[in-house]
């Protein structure tokens, strides 16, 4: 092996080290804090149930708001400028 070959080998070795250092390698140690599959799905079901409940509540509130808007518009027709016509 010549001196040039040794230098090329060192450059390649360093390039491989850098590439391996930059890779995101997951180990069992990294995964030990994650829940098992059953726990994961149970927790997700709780979250999805809560989101569904919130969606239902939003639909209910939205319906009430729409009804109130109609009532307010009717009252504004009867009482323009927020005053009763008899007292204007």
How does this structure look, described?
The chain is an all-alpha fold. The chain has one domain (3-87). It has helices at residues 3-22, 28-31, 37-78. The chain starts with a helix and ends in a 10-residue tail after the last helix.
Itemize the secondary structure elements and their pairings.
Elements: H1 3-22, H2 28-31, H3 37-78
The outline comes out as: elongated
Rounded mean pLDDT score: 83
- What is the share of helical residues? over 70%
Helix and strand content put the structural class at mainly alpha
What Rg do the Cα atoms give? 34 Å
Quickly count the helices: 3
Number of strands: 0
**N-C termini distance:** 108 Å
SSE order, as H and E? HHH
Largest pleated sheet: none
* β-sheet strand percentage: under 5%
Domain count, please report it.
1
Low-confidence stretches: none
């Amino acid at each position: 092996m010549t001196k040039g070959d040794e230098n090329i080998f060192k450059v390649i070795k360093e390039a491989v080290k850098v590439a391996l250092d930059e890779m995101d390698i997951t180990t069992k140690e990294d995964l030990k804090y994650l829940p098992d599959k059953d726990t994961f799905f149970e927790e997700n079901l709780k979250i999805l149930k809560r989101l569904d409940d919130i969606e239902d509540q939003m639909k209910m509130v939205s319906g009430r708001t729409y009804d109130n808007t109609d009532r307010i518009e009717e009252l504004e027709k009867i009482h323009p400028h927020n005053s009763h016509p008899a007292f204007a």
